[in-house]
């Protein structure tokens, strides 16, 4: 038995000696086994990673999750990381959060993980404020310059990261770090956070390591304390004072020996204190944090990485995120260099999670990264959110000047087809009209048609310098009713004119409604006045139809013939006899039965407004022509640029404004005879809505409700929403695709900021500088803003388009296109028109009251 044991011992010694002499064979075998094992693991991990899925989470503006909701989301992510086949290696069992910015969106939030976890991850605890969409793989175009970094936890390994509050959003530093990305330069920044459930054996090994380190540290502290204690005692006993004390003492010398020193006992290590956040198993995960920045411009990727590193410092406390690697003077060896770059790219491309041993965190520490941006996150406005304005592009509509986080300014715009209605509010002189003029001028140069209604006329001389181009002059018309100068030139318009083929009942309805709106008539307060005016207009329109069919449109009646029809019996009898067959039975019966019973004073309420119109030479010349030049329907279809200046806000001006507004409503609605695809976009701009709506509140409200259907987009400006009639105010706010406000009093601004949820608050808007605006817009079907913009100043934005020397030529062309004639000529013609109409009626009436009816061939 002893010989066998000796022989076995000898064999072991010989084997150990042989291995010592041939150690390289053992190392080679170990290396081969490790290599084969690693190759198998990588292939299995790659196969498992090929079945991963991706989800993109998009949060709304009102997303405001609680800590409990975020924590539940973290639990879902941790659970989903294990939804892999049993054979999948641990490095493939992870869920990845991707925070990506490439200049097309402020920060895209994606979740990638095992395909088996899709159902679990698709239903979030965030409710309807977060939309989960199946995401497609992202194919990146290679950039010239790329930097990579891996972050590990440094500091006390058992200490948690800093608890970052939810207000402001913990993602705000990361968003700010990528806010100035420029897609045209190829900028890209992406953060990937891999979450993996902690394996029990690894956690136990880590705890044993930490406990061992804590015990060794405690023993070293005890030994250090004992050493210092013995040194202190030795110094005391060797001191002169201690020796004198011994000489004077009554004790015998034998008792004066050195005192016994008891060394301190090492303190018992408390596991909870030594392990910190690793003491409990609940909700403990391992994480891997990778960052990649790229750009086609040298230096921008490195600067972006430094910004992201600074942003991650916000999460640092006794434990912090630090870049992995070594620094050698000015050089840093990290994920961009051998030997770790290849491992970084493999993990980046395949989504493998191989975190450093220090990267243990609890889900509570990742609160800021487990959710998309909330309402407390201030997102930058990128070119993908608001396109950059390009002069002459008919698809874009100028909105203002946006100053980016990097200080760069750019002209931003909305898409014309999405900008249906626009409302601008703010104090006088705040820049509302200047912004509207810039928008209108840009639209005009892009080939668009528009109508600019300005009761005060200030906008016209401001705009002429930038509209004085040969290409625009043939499209611009000026209808100026201010009567400036010794003998001003005025355009003409006959609201009753039938020479353009209008429907008779639409013309009568438009004029009657305009009167009722301007004079506050309705069926309960002024039923008789409405009836009288409707009957009179019906006859006059029939007269005009007869004149046009007879080939004599210059003999048409005007609105001033209402007085003759109601008060001049001879004219009335002749007119009724001439158009008797054109009137329906009910109308003829009214004139025969009801009209003779009316007292003379019943006509005053109808005739007084007409008398005021006739007393003003400008309105008499403008409305007293048989064949007017003003035709807003033709202007729409031919992309004309029409400037209308009613002349003020008095009773007469309000009536003219009401007639123009109702005619615009009629003309736009008449576009139903044109297929939708062939309707030419047209934009009316209404400056001083308070003045305009005072004349036609229901008409303006109907515009904001109906015009979208006919490709007519209305832009309105006002100082106070509260001063507008209630129907107009409700229609404005309800249908506005663009809502803007300048500075003003808090009470005036509050109705606008209330539409934005008081973000920004009225206090903030009230303290803005002049020409600053807060604007909310619709782009690609979603709301952008409110964004703070600086109003475009014409002298700066359109400096290249200024043609001050050609302004006289523009004004001459604008008046010519509007058919403007000297006022005295128009008033003379208007005075003679009553005789011309009477002569026409006399010629076309017979003794029995019938009309000489012409056939269609004779008329043509």
How would you describe what is shown here?
By secondary structure, the protein is α+β, with helices and mostly antiparallel strands. 43% of the residues lie in helices and 17% in strands. The protein is built from 31 helices and 24 strands. Helix 22 packs parallel to helix 24. The longest helix is centred in the N-terminal third of the chain and has 38 residues, at 200-237.
Tell me the number of helical segments per DSSP (H or I, 4 or more residues long): 31
Tell me the radius of gyration.
43 Å
Overall 3D form: elongated
Strand residue content:
15-25%
| Biggest β-sheet description | 9 strands, antiparallel
Distance from first to last alpha carbon = 139 Å
Quick structural gist:
With 860 residues, this protein is an alpha+beta fold. Helix content is 43%, strand content 17%. It is elongated, with a radius of gyration of 43 Å.
């Amino acid at each position: 038995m002893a010989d066998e044991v000796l022989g076995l011992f000898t064999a072991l010694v010989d084997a150990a000696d042989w291995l010592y002499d041939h150690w390289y064979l053992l190392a080679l075998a170990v290396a081969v086994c490790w290599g084969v094992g690693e190759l198998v693991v990588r292939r299995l991990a790659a196969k498992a990673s090929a079945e991963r899925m991706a989800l993109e989470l998009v949060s709304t503006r009102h997303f405001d999750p609680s800590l409990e909701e975020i924590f539940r989301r973290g639990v879902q992510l941790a659970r989903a990381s294990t939804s892999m086949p049993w054979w999948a290696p641990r490095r493939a069992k992870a869920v990845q959060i991707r925070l990506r910015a490439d200049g097309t969106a402020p920060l895209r939030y994606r979740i990638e993980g095992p395909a088996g976890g899709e159902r679990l991850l698709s239903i979030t605890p965030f409710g309807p404020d977060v939309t989960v969409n199946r995401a497609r793989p992202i194919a990146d175009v290679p950039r010239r310059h790329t930097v990579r970094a891996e972050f590990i936890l440094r500091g006390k390994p058992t200490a948690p990261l800093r608890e970052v509050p939810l207000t402001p959003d913990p993602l705000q530093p990361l968003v700010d770090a990528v806010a100035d990305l420029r897609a045209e330069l190829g900028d890209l920044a992406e953060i990937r956070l891999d979450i993996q459930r902690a394996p029990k054996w690894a956690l136990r090994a880590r705890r044993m390591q930490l406990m061992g380190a804590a015990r060794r540290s405690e023993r070293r502290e005890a030994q250090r304390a004992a050493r210092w204690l013995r040194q202190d005692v030795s110094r005391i006993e060797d001191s002169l004072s201690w020796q004198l004390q011994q000489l004077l003492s009554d004790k015998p010398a034998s008792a004066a020996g050195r005192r016994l020193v008891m060394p301190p006992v090492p303190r018992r290590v408390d596991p909870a204190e030594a392990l910190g956040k690793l003491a409990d198993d609940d909700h403990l995960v391992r994480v891997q944090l990778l960052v990649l920045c790229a750009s086609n411009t040298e230096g921008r990727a490195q600067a972006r990485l430094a910004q992201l590193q600074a942003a991650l410092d916000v999460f640092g406390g006794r434990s912090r995120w630090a870049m992995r690697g070594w620094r050698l003077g000015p050089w840093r060896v990290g994920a961009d260099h051998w030997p770790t770059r290849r491992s970084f790219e493999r993990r980046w491309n395949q989504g493998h999670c191989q975190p450093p041993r220090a990267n243990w965190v609890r889900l509570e520490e990742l609160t800021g990264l487990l959710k998309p941006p909330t309402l407390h996150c201030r997102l930058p406005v990128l070119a993908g959110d608001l396109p950059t304005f390009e002069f002459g592009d008919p698809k874009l509509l100028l909105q203002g000047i946006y100053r980016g986080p990097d200080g760069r300014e750019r002209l931003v715009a909305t898409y014309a087809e999405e900008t249906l209605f626009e409302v601008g509010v703010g104090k006088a002189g705040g820049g509302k009209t200047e912004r509207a003029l810039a928008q209108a001028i840009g639209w005009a140069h892009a080939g668009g048609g528009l109508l600019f209604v300005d009761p005060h006329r200030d906008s016209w001389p401001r705009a002429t310098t930038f509209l004085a181009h040969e290409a625009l002059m043939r499209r611009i018309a000026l209808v100026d009713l201010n009567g400036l100068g010794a003998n001003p030139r005025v355009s003409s318009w006959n609201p009753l004119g039938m020479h353009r083929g209008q429907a008779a009942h639409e013309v009568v309805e438009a004029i009657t409604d305009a009167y009722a709106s301007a004079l506050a008539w309705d069926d309960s307060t002024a039923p008789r006045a409405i009836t009288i005016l409707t009957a009179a207009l019906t006859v006059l329109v029939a007269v005009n139809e007869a004149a046009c069919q007879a080939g004599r449109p210059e003999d048409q009646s005007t609105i001033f013939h209402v007085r003759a029809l109601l008060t001049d019996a001879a004219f009335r009898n002749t007119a009724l006899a001439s158009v008797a067959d054109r009137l329906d039975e009910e109308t003829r019966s009214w004139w025969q039965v009801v009209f003779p019973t009316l007292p003379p004073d019943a006509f005053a309420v109808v005739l007084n407004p007409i008398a005021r119109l006739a007393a003003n030479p400008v309105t008499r010349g403008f409305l007293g022509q048989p064949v007017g030049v003003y035709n807003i329907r033709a202007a729409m279809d031919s992309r004309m640029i029409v400037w209308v200046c009613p002349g003020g806000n008095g009773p007469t001006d309000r009536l003219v404004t009401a007639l123009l507004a109702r005619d615009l409503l009629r003309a736009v609605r008449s576009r139903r005879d044109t297929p939708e695809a062939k309707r030419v976009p047209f934009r009316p701009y209404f400056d001083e809505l308070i003045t305009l709506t005072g004349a036609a509140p229901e008409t303006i409200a109907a515009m904001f409700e109906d015009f979208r259907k006919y490709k007519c987009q209305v832009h309105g400006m006002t100082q106070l929403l509260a001063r507008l009639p209630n129907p107009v105010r409700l229609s404005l706010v309800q249908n506005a695709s663009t809502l803007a406000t300048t500075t003003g009093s808090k009470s005036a601004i509050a109705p606008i900021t209330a539409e934005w949820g008081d973000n920004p608050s009225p206090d903030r808007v009230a303290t803005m500088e002049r020409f600053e605006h807060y604007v909310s817009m619709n782009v690609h079907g979603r709301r952008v803003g409110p964004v703070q913009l600086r109003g475009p100043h014409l002298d700066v934005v359109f400096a290249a388009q200024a043609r001050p020397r050609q302004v006289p030529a523009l004004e001459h062309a604008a008046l010519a296109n509007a058919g403007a004639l000297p006022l005295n000529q128009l008033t003379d013609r208007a005075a003679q028109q009553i005789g011309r109409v009477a002569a026409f009626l006399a010629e076309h009436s017979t003794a029995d009251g019938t009309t000489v009816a012409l056939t269609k061939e004779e008329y043509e």
